[in-house]
Amino acid sequence: MGLSARYSRGTIANSKFSGNTLGGGIRLAKCDGVTVANCLFSGNRATQNGGGLAADSSSVTIRNCTFIGNNARTEGGAMDVNDGTLLTVVGSDFIGNSAGTLEGGALWVGAGVAGIPLNMRNCTFAKNRCLDITSTDDGGAVYIEAQTNHHIE
Hints:
Helix content is 0%, strand content 46%. The strands form four sheets. Strands 1-4-8-12-16-20 form a six-stranded parallel beta sheet, with no helix packed on it. A six-stranded parallel beta sheet has the order 2-5-9-13-17-21, with no helix packed on it. The protein is an all-beta fold.
């Protein structure tokens, strides 16, 4: 795993997370006010969810980052957010990421974030996919399980 943080806040900037295994690039839990800016996430592999980044019960802003060729065994090849995470993603690229057995080749937003909107603008999604061809609702790029008014531009 590249970086793991609990009960933290701050900025991660101008960094590269590449080729990390087990937990992938970054794992955040109960972090309030984390900004990830101008970072590259490439070739990370998570044994469960969130190959590039996973966040639970956190407030996270992703700005001008690139997620390329990341993989998660279950969901969220590039990124997985759950359990009340407030996520804002601006100007970021998601290219060639994959999820193994569930949904969200690039991004998976779980039911635990119901009532909290996903805010996303000026992002590019290309060639992301789910590897389980038997899934009926896989969301090759983005899978949103939560029923909320999301803002995607």
